[in-house]
Design a protein that fits this description.
This protein is mainly α. It is built from 9 helices and 3 strands. It folds into 2 domains: about 70 residues, no CATH class; about 110 residues, Orthogonal Bundle (hpI Integrase, Chain A). Strand 2 and strand 3 form a beta hairpin.
Length: about 200
């Protein structure tokens, strides 16, 4: 901590010319490490930029022995890095609960989409490509066509996913373009399986 005192003093305008002339790379590093402990990356990047400016200002009038500004390393900040890459389990449960309670056509559709997304962890494009004939009710499997690789996977049809699809089929008129397959009346015998 003693090594960073020169930078602390310099940054708080109490350093003498002699202290500034003895400023070293070690002092700058120690100061940045000290600040890094209490700052987020975006704030640390701002501090690093200000430190570089300060060190550039010090060098031309020969207040320091060497230009230390290029030695200050700032963290990289990526676009949208603050956005979480996944939703937490509790948030998923809350969203599913809200959509499960919604008995409108949109609510039934949303629940039928969100249930396999959260259960199987497949991509949104793979869910939108699903059709009713992808569900094999007798074998209790669902066929997923993977959008990136073109491969097909057969997954076990879990009861909550089957029930969500059945609720959609019974609650709304199914368009032929998506979820095409057997008519709603042909799904009635499947209710016995879904009630397990």
């Amino acid at each position: 901590m003693a090594a960073s005192r020169g930078c602390d003093n310099a940054c708080h305008e109490v350093a003498t010319r002699e202290e500034l002339s003895r400023l070293t790379l070690h002092d700058v590093d120690a100061y940045m490490k000290q600040r890094a402990g209490s700052l987020r990356r975006i704030s640390l990047k701002t501090v690093a930029g200000k430190m570089r400016s300060f060190l550039r200002w010090l060098h031309p009038p020969e207040r320091t022995n060497s230009d230390l500004s290029p030695t200050v390393i700032a963290p990289s900040i990526y676009a949208r890095e603050g956005i979480p890459c996944a939703i937490g389990a509790e948030d998923v449960k809350r969203v599913l609960a809200v959509t499960q309670d919604d008995q409108t056509a949109k609510g039934l559709r949303d629940y039928a989409i969100l249930t396999p997304l959260s259960t199987y962890g497949v991509r949104a494009g793979e869910i939108t490509a699903l059709r009713l004939d992808d569900v094999d009710w007798r074998k209790a499997t669902v066929r997923i066509r993977h959008s990136e690789t073109g491969a097909t996977t057969h997954l076990p049809l879990l009861p909550e996913v089957g029930k969500a699809v059945l609720r959609l089929g019974r609650g709304v008129r199914v368009r032929r373009a998506r979820w095409a397959g057997p008519g709603v009346s042909s799904l009635k015998p499947v209710w016995n399986w879904a009630r397990r």
